[in-house]
Amino acid sequence: MKEDTLVKKSLLRIRQNTPKPVCREVPILGRSADLAYVDQDVLFSVEFKLHDWRKAIQQARDHRLAADYSYICMPKRNVSEALSIELNKHGVGLFFYKDSGDWPFEVIIEARRSFEVSKVARSWVLTFISEKQGRQRCQSLIQSANI
To answer: Could you give phi then psi for residue 111, rounded to 5 degrees?
Structure first.
């Protein structure tokens, strides 16, 4: 399965099974997150990779400038000590993609909340998701960002 297929399947399942605002290819400060969603006023970014977890962590680490929590998502595998150490070092979490159920992710390693979030960058991401989704929830989040 290709990365893009995982992203599309995840997007579809989240849209079909939850009221969470969600988008793919979400711009974050000159880069883009494969997927971003809002859950209870919290912004999550997800970077999908089939193999190159080091590159995924680097990308997800950059997403922490706009997202409250940043994850990488991979097909189920053994989690090496090196992968676990790097995820913890950068505060990035790990999802395994699930083929079944309403929610496409299994949390393997919890992300730490980012304290590096730029209010402006977060607002841009929320605006992007809101415009793509047309959901009122993001609008209230943007207004409450006090920008």
So the answer is: -80, 150
Q: Which two tokens stand for residue 74?
A: 């991979």
Average pLDDT over residues 19-24: 92
Q: What is the rounded radius of gyration, in angstroms, for the C-alpha atoms of the chain? A: 14
Taking the C-alpha atoms of residue 30 and residue 22, their distance in angstroms, rounded to an integer, is: 19
Q: Where are the domains of the chain?
A: 3-138
**What does the alpha-carbon distance between residue 113 and residue 67 come to, in Å, rounded to a whole number?**
9
- The Cα 81–Cα 127 span in angstroms is 38
Provide the CATH topology of domain 3-138: Trna Endonuclease; Chain: A, domain 1 (3.40.1350)
Tell me if 118 sits within 8 A of 65, measured CB to CB.
yes
Q: Identify the burial level of 104 via C-beta atoms within 10 angstroms of its C-beta, where 0-12 means exposed, 13-18 middle and 19 or more buried.
A: buried
Any idea which residue has 């299994």 for tokens?
106
- Model pTM score: 0.88
The single residue listed with the structure tokens 């730490």 is 112
